[in-house]
Amino acid sequence: MPRLSPSHFLFFLLLFNLPLSSSTDATPITNSTSSIIPSSLSNSTSIDSIIENIFETYLPLVSVLSGLSPNETAQLSHQSLRHLKHDLDSLQTSQTNDSLLLQIDDGQMTEIVAILKDYHKSRVYSIISALWENSLDEQIPRLDQFAILEYFEERKRRQQRDANIFTRIWSAIKKLFNPDSCEEKCPAVDPPAVRFIVDTFPIDKREDLDMAVNSNDSTALMHVIEENFADFGVLDDLRQWRDNITIPIPLQAIVNSATEPQKIALDRLRQLKLINSLRDYYGTLIERKSLVEQEEIRVFFARMNDSFLGCFSDSDDHNEYWR
């Protein structure tokens, strides 16, 4: 399978955190790998097939990235995942040049595969983002989502400013000794069904998947996925995850309580993109709820941030997401 030198292929596997398995005794994927998949799929896909699919998918990009200047490579390395995906999607790949691949030194290969690993993550988050957006947009306008998220971010900053020095020190100590702090940032493994789809999606159908992701049509995206995973339990896991993308009942009550004049005023605020006014409107109504209800709403938006927004974008990207 590999057309890279043995040392380059080893770099590829290590940077993707993929364990090796023999071709005669293919090991089923388990939760110890970078690709965490539903238990219903654990016996259907081997590590070898995952490695082969990822390797063959990204090998043409290795040739292209090897021809970039150090400055161009550095720029890609420091981009948000959303921008990185856009830039790599736009690169024109051609037939892999084996002789050129053998000329890549280990240092450059390490940089290239690190970029490809982030690109792989960006493809996971792009699907999560597309499915989440379409599910949530049917329940509450996109700009209102941003306003509520901004409200909780501002409340968090206010609470941090008000905390005394001893509270801040204790919080820093807990963070320092928290085992979770040593985990990889943005591993792109949750939900497992989406990671499995990206890890194993047929190479010849990848363009169809990317087009569906960019179409802003979750029905079209699900159709492409269902066409290629009709016989796997991944669809049940994916549907169950999507069914849980539902705004909390206290927030739904706020949305439903708007009077006709308020709805007209809110539409006007959205047209003018007056985020601060929307934030103040929702913030006032949220603070009228019980502490338990406020926490329910906060946790939902924290989940949204953890699921894709906090990893797929940086602060400069948020305007793209909420446009």
Ordered list of secondary-structure elements with their pairings:
Blueprint: H1 6-15, H2 47-66, H3 70-77, H4 81-89, H5 98-101, H6 106-137, H7 142-162, H8 165-176, H9 192-200, H10 206-214, H11 218-228, H12 234-243, H13 249-256, H14 260-271, H15 275-287, H16 291-312, H17 318-322
Helix pairs in contact: 1-6, 2-6, 4-6, 6-9, 6-16, 7-15, 9-12, 10-11
How does this structure look, described?
With 323 residues, the protein is mostly helical. Helix 1 packs parallel to helix 6 (106-137). It has a domain at 6-21 and 34-123. The protein is built from 17 helices and no strands. The longest helix has 32 residues, at 106-137. It has helices spanning 6-15, 47-66, 70-77, 81-89, 98-101, 106-137, 142-162, 165-176, 192-200, 206-214, 218-228, 234-243, 249-256, 260-271, 275-287, 291-312, 318-322. It is 67% helix and 0% strand. The protein is globular and about 65 Å long.
Q: What count of helical segments does DSSP give?
A: 17
Average residue-wise pLDDT: 79
pLDDT < 50 runs, ≥5 residues: 19-43
Structural class: mainly alpha
User: Count of DSSP E strands?
Assistant: 0
Secondary-structure element order, N to C: HHHHHHHHHHHHHHHHH
The first-to-last residue Cα distance is 44 Å
Q: β content, as a range?
A: under 5%
**Any idea what the radius of gyration is?**
22 Å
Helix content: 55-70%
Shape: globular
Largest sheet: none
